């Protein structure tokens, strides 16, 4: 994180900083990770359709508590926002509701706010955007309260659609993600 912080100091108002959420900003308790790993190794889980996997993930998420990966991150985000640098999140989190979580996107927004992270400052003039042209398997990526929800669509495609929609080309973009395939989608 030290190298990232050093680079962030040189950004200006025409820059964009994009954070992944899971395992970059927040993580879940050990019980959740163990249960999730066991589930993903189960042949029955691997054969399930997306809706069933979504429901199981929702059960796991709703029964565990988030914690910050790095305690300095909320302060860093606020500092960038105070410098009028655009800071958003881009998560592969599903959207919509199921029998466990009423609105996955609202749940995610509130989960982050509860630990001191609020992205709604950046692009506040755009409260909600749906990207129907790049939908995948009836899941439409959205932008809500400063967070892009990819919903299974490649993150690079979602970010590109967002930037085209708002008609903005940042001079510099920093994307922080823990998965190389998401970084390479740009």
- CATH topology, by name, is Rossmann fold
Please trace the helix and strand order, writing H or E for each element: HEEHHHEHEHEEEHEH
Which CATH first-tier class would you pick?
A: Alpha Beta
Quickly count the domains. Answer: 1
Examine the secondary-structure arrangement and name the CATH architecture: 3-Layer(aba) Sandwich
Structural class: alpha/beta
Mean pLDDT: 82
Q: How far from one another are the termini?
A: 21 Å
Principal-axis shape equals globular
Count of DSSP H/I helices = 8
Strand content: 15-25%
How are the strands of the largest sheet arranged?
5-6-7-4-1-8
Largest sheet: 6 strands, mixed
Low-confidence segments, given as residue ranges, are: none
Percent helix: 25-40%
Strand element count: 8
Q: Which value, in Å, is the CA radius of gyration?
A: 16 Å
Supply database-style keywords.
globular; Rossmann fold; alpha/beta; two-stranded antiparallel ribbon; 8 strands; 186 residues
Summarize the structure in words.
- The structure is a single chain.
- The protein has one domain: Rossmann fold, CATH 3.40.50.
- The chain has 8 helices and 8 strands, in the order H-E-E-H-H-H-E-H-E-H-E-E-E-H-E-H.
- It is α/β, with parallel strands linked by helices and 186 residues long.
Write the layout of secondary structure elements.
Blueprint: H1 2-8, E1 15-19, E2 26-28, H2 30-41, H3 43-46, H4 50-62, E3 66-68, H5 73-82, E4 86-91, H6 104-114, E5 128-130, E6 142-144, E7 147-149, H7 155-166, E8 172-176, H8 180-184
């Amino acid at each position: 994180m030290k190298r990232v912080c050093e680079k962030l100091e040189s950004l200006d108002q025409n820059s964009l900083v994009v954070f992944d959420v899971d395992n970059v900003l927040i993580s879940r308790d050990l019980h959740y990770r163990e249960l999730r790993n066991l589930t993903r190794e189960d042949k029955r889980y691997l054969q399930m359709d997306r809706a069933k996997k979504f429901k199981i993930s929702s059960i796991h998420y709703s029964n565990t508590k988030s914690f910050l990966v790095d305690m300095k991150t909320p302060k860093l985000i606020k500092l960038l926002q105070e410098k009028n640098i655009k800071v958003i999140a881009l998560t592969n989190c599903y959207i919509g509701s199921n029998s466990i979580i009423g609105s996955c996107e609202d749940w995610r927004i509130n989960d982050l706010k509860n630990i001191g992270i609020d992205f709604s400052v950046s692009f506040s003039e755009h409260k909600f955007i749906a990207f129907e042209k790049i939908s995948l398997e009836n899941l439409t990526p959205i932008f809500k309260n400063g967070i892009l929800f990819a919903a299974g669509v490649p993150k690079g495609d979602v970010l590109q659609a967002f930037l085209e929609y708002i008609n903005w080309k940042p001079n510099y973009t920093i994307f922080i993600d823990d998965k190389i395939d998401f970084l390479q989608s740009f």
